[in-house]
Structure formats: C-alpha cells, structure tokens
Design a protein that fits this description.
single chain, Rossmann fold
C-alpha cells in the first residue's frame, strides 16, 4: 500500500496504510502458513523454474493450492498465468 503509484502501488503513508490493512483484515479469513505450504512452494519453484522476485508469487500460489483457493485478486495477472488451476483477477476489471 505504501508502494509509489509509479510502481503499481497506492502511494499511501504509513498511517493510512495501517488503517487500510486493518479494514481489509476485518473482512477476510487468514489462512495458516505450514510445512505443507512450504513443500508445495518448493515443488512449484522447481516445476515452473521460478527465480528472482517471482518466488513471492509462487509462495502465494502454493498457499492457494494447499488451502483449495483458486482465485486471487492481483494487479499483475500475468504473474499467475503459469500456475495451472489458479485464476488471477485484476481488481480494475471486476
């Protein structure tokens, strides 16, 4: 949320970002991280030959697979196309 507009962020200050995060957290169910998520992450990093900053998207994908979540909101829909069975939706298109 504090990432600049020029870098696909919201450009919020720390306090505004904190308020926004609290509002988002109040409306969601947080899924636990686990050894199963780690093992799935390792598997898909190797399977899809993932390197660099894309390992963060792979971690989200691993958690989605483990918890049976198949849709994610992302401003970077292309980053999730490689993951079979997962559908990324751009919030601007909903």
């Amino acid at each position: 949320m504090t990432r600049p507009f020029a870098k696909n962020g919201f450009g919020l200050g720390k306090d505004d970002a904190e308020r926004g995060v609290r509002a988002i957290e109040a409306a969601m169910i947080l899924l636990p991280d686990s050894a199963a998520v780690y093992q799935e992450w390792r598997r898909i990093v190797v399977q899809y030959d993932i390197v660099g900053v894309q390992v963060h998207d792979a971690r989200l994908a691993a958690s989605m697979y483990v918890h049976g979540v198949n849709h994610i909101l992302s401003f970077n829909v292309a980053d999730f196309r490689r993951f079979n069975g997962l559908k990324a939706l751009d919030p601007n298109e909903i």
